[in-house]
Amino acid sequence: MLGYISGILWYLGNCYWIYATMHTYGGIAKPAAAGILLLFCLYLGIYQAAFAAALTAIHRRFGRGPALLYAPFVWVAVELVRARITGFPWDQLGIAQIDNPVLTRLAPYTGAYGLSFAIAAVNALWLTRLTLRRRRHTRTLLVTTAAVAVLLYVAAFSRLRAPRQEQMSAVATLVQENLEVGADATAGPPLSRAGMLQAFSALSLFPPAAVACDGMPESPSTHCGTPSSEQQGKPSAQYLAPTQLIVWPEAPNDFFDADPEFRSAISQLARTARAPVIAGNIGMTPNRNVAKGYDLYNSADFFLPDGSFSARYDKMHLVPFGEYVPYKQLFFFAGSLLQDVGVFDPGRKRIVFTGDGHIYGVFICYESVFADEVRQYARMGAEVLVNISDDGWYGDTSAAWEHLNQARMRAIENRRWLLRATNTGVTAVIDPYGRVTAAIPRHIRSSLRAGFNYRQDVTFYTAHGDLFAWFCVFVALAGLAGSAVPNRQRAYPST
Length: 495
Prior knowledge:
By secondary structure, this protein is an alpha/beta fold. It folds into two domains: about 1-160 and about 465-490, no CATH class; about 170-460, Nitrilase/N-carbamoyl-D-aminoacid amidohydrolase. Helix content is about 45%, strand content about 15%. It is built from 16 helices and twelve strands. The chain has a six-stranded mixed β-sheet with strand order 5-4-3-2-1-12. A six-stranded mixed β-sheet has the order 6-7-8-9-10-11, with helices on one face. A hairpin with a 7-residue loop joins strand 3 and strand 4. It starts with a helix and ends with a helix.
């Protein structure tokens, strides 16, 4: 019960922005929005309850010390289950250390799960020290072993792929449309479809001349490339080079994949810029097997430099309680609360975009939190990752920054440059070490022209995925299995 209460409070505090998203931007009444947030917390709080229940079982069988040693394994196992079953691995514990250059070196091998394990292990070992305060020799041995392990880790990883200044051989233009979302969209006269296409094309062809980091939180991993005294007043080489890629974000517009006006505008833009274009839109596919007669997708189109349409990717992992209702049959009692939730159909196939001699892995919005899915793009040959998103739904809450940090972790895990184009921000370029190299402020209509690079190397995590997390599941299950075995010493006490 304490674990369950902890989980409910955790999600209320960390995902409070769901209320604002549902009410302010989704147009849902306050009681219904509060009800959705509460249902969300009651649902996901079950995982912290499962963590506490597992530790309780191990504690009762083996004692407090062994239970604490099992804690990091159980924690990671629960995080993996949350990602695979519920489909909401938002803000895993390891994301908290995204700016820790020592711990993030685990990510290319273990994913964010390795960082979660390290955080849980440090806290568990500290509590184990207190638990064993009466066993002086055991406590000393444990603390010494932990200290040696930390020193060996620091020494080993300080020599392994130390972060360096990444070379930039290509230039991308990322458009930030800054379209109002939800209820705010009625604040002023909307642009026509033709007006939006014209405005966004102009931003793509004529971006501002300078890269800004205004609005970026201060952190050791934010490097906006302040020019040296010799470079000040001189144009950067990346601005003299032609754009190799143009990216339009996911946005609340009425761009449809099959709309001739939309396709003509993107085709013209690609030919004028002589560069591939990735553009968010809504895809529709006829389907006689459903009542509405079609499937509706959150999509991204890819156009080649000659203006021809190449491929379309349909978002596979939809936002729960935003784009669909998970396990809807379980929420039959809350039908009136969920009737206004948007409905999209999930895409069926993950693809990469190939054009102009390079391969691009594109994922949409919330898909950036699924490490095991994003790595598939690198496995499929993607030389750069592209994340298009509409973070306008978050308003001015912390969610936009939480989303950015999770995208940064995906760059580290796969050692890939990550280009992030969003409707309202944070639009940014992220290097393979998770550092933000260029960004523009939120809530302005602008575009970012910045350098990046193509990479083809494959990390251990890219190749093998959540192998470490599954190992933690095995250890956790072994501990639970052992806790189920009767304690014969207790069953037959000595006389």
